[in-house]
C-alpha cells in the first residue's frame, strides 16, 4: 500500500494506514487470527515503516502481539493506534458495535464491552417488523394528512 499512500499524500489526501490484521483481507490471512507471530513479525514491522515513509499520518496496528506493537511504536515517527495491539500503542480504537455489544456470536479477546445492546436491538427490530406486518405502523400520527408546505420537515 505504500505506493498508493505516497500517491494520495502527494496530492494532499491524508492517510491513516492499517497493518497487521486487515479485515478486508482476512481470508488471505487464513482467518481472523493474530498477525505478526514468529517470522511474520518482520513483515508487519516493514509494513509499518513503509507506510510511515510513504507519508501516512498514523497507523492502525490490528491484532498483533504486545511486544511487536511496542517495538513498532518506538521505531516509527507517526502515532500508532491499537485495536487488539495492547496499551503499548499511542492510542486505542474499538469498533462501536463491539463497544455496544451489538453482536453476541463473535467476540475477539481484545474487545471490552461497555453495554450489551444486541438483545435490545433484536427485540426492537422484531417489534418494528411485527408492527409493520400487522399494519400498526405507520399509524395516523406518523402520516402527513395533507401536502406539507415547502421546507416543512416536521
From TrEMBL:
The protein, known as: 3-methyl-2-oxobutanoate hydroxymethyltransferase
EC number: 2.1.2.11
Enzyme class: transferase
Keywords: Methyltransferase, Pantothenate biosynthesis, Transferase
Domain of life from the UniProt record: Bacteria
Quaternary structure annotation from Swiss-Prot or TrEMBL: Homodecamer; pentamer of dimers.
GO molecular function, one term: methyltransferase activity
GO cellular component: cytoplasm
Lineage: Bacteria, Pseudomonadati, Pseudomonadota, Alphaproteobacteria, Hyphomicrobiales
